[in-house]
Amino acid sequence: MNAREVLAAYAERINRQDFNLLTDLIAADATFWFTNGTYVGIAAIRDAFETTWKLMGSSEVYWLDQQQWIVESDDAAACTYRFNWKTDSSSGTGRGTTVLRFVDNRWWIVHEHLSRWPA
Question: Is the pTM of this model over 0.85?
Answer without folding.
Answer: yes
